[in-house]
Design a protein that fits this description.
globular
């Protein structure tokens, strides 16, 4: 129920989680195993070796609707365009 997506590092993707929060969409940066840690996660570094990415973690439950997921995808597209 958790997806960690890596977005290419750009000026817009660097503030993606903040802008999603402003839009009322809750996400996390990095991986759960590095929550609160300084520096990058060894898990994220292993998934994206030597790649400048911005990791965003999305959590889902059985209570999420297709429409909510679609709204998030549209908002990300808007924010990164």
């Amino acid at each position: 129920t958790v997806v960690n997506a890596g977005f290419p590092k750009t000026d817009r993707s660097e503030v993606l989680s903040m802008n999603l929060d402003i839009a009322g969409i809750c996400v996390s940066g990095g991986s759960a195993c590095s929550s609160g840690a300084q520096g990058g996660s060894h898990v994220i570094q292993a998934i994206y070796p030597n790649q400048p990415i911005v990791p965003i973690r999305f959590s889902f439950s059985k209570h999420n609707t297709f429409e909510e997921v679609e709204e998030v995808v549209l908002k990300i597209s808007e924010l990164l365009s």
